[in-house]
Amino acid sequence: MSVQPDSIEDADLTLWAVHELSYGGFEDVHDLAETSPPVLLLRARLETDLEARLRDRWPGAQPAPTDVPAELVRLVAEDDGPSLAEHVHRRADLDQVMELLRQRSVYHLKEADPSAWVVPRLPVRAKTALVELLFDEYGDGDPNRLHAHLFAQGLEAVGLRSDYGAYVDDALPEVFEMNNAASMFGMQRRLRGAAMGHLAAFEATSSLPSRRMVQGFARLGLPTEMVRYYDEHVEADAIHEQTALRDICGTLAEEQPEQAGDILFGAFTCLDLEARFATAMLDSWGVAS
Question: Is the N end or the C end of the chain the one with fewer CB atoms within 10 Å?
Answer without folding.
Answer: N
